[in-house]
Amino acid sequence: MNGAVQGLYEIIRARRGERTQGSYTCYLFEQGLDKILKKVGEEASECIIAAKNGDGAQTAQELCDLIYHLLVLMVEQDIPLDAVEEILEQRRRKQGNLKEFHQVDRNS
Ligand SMILES: N=c1c2ncn([C@@H]3O[C@H](COP(=O)(O)OP(=O)(O)OP(=O)(O)O)[C@@H](O)[C@H]3O)c2ncn1[C@@H]1O[C@H](COP(=O)(O)O)[C@@H](O)[C@H]1O
Predict the structure, then answer these.
(1) 10 near 22, Cβ under 8 Å?
(2) First-to-last CA distance in the chain?
(3) Is the ipTM of this complex over 0.85?
(4) How far apart are CA 2 and CA 85, in angstroms?
């Protein structure tokens, strides 16, 4: 997974400065931030619907669409993959994240 995400991020980053014929990524960068954000929202909604329908294979496909569009957003916003990985790694080491108010809700 990590290698695939890293490889895809690098292709997307390279696409940013290109005008490659037939490239969907170039099309997204040309359209700009509003279009990229709209696609992130659409793909997130499609994941939700596939998951709600209990369709694991379709949910996996939609997750890939969402991850791709999130990576496009990261490149557009100049957010390095390393920066996100570092935050994830910090959070991984932290245990017991259930907030106090959630515990209160569960106990009531
Ligand atoms: N991983 C992806 C990827 N995932 C999803 N998509 C595109 O995301 C779109 C999502 O489908 P939709 O039906 O929601 O959108 P659409 O109707 O095609 O597009 P809109 O008119 O809504 O913008 C499809 O066009 C998919 O092809 C992707 N497009 C490209 N990549 C990878 O990005 C790299 C560069 O691709 P190009 O820039 O196309 O060369 C390659 O490694 C590709 O495999």
Answers:
(1) no
(2) 40
(3) yes
(4) 10
Predicted TM-score (pTM) of this structure:
0.90
Q: Is the C-beta atom of 23 inside 6 A of ligand 1?
A: yes
Share of the chain above pLDDT 90, in %: 79
Pocket of ligand 1 contains residue 76 by CB under 6 Å: no
8 A C-beta contact, residue 36 and residue 49:
no
Here the tokens at position 11 are 């292709």
Those residues with Cβ within 8 angstroms of residue 89's Cβ, 6 or more apart along the chain or in another chain: none
Q: Using a 6 Å cutoff on CB, does residue 68 contact ligand 1?
A: yes
Distance 51 CA to ligand 1 centre (A): 21
The yes/no answer on whether domain 2-80 falls in CATH 1.10.287.1080 is yes
What ligand 1 atom has the least distance to the C-alpha of 43? Answer: 14
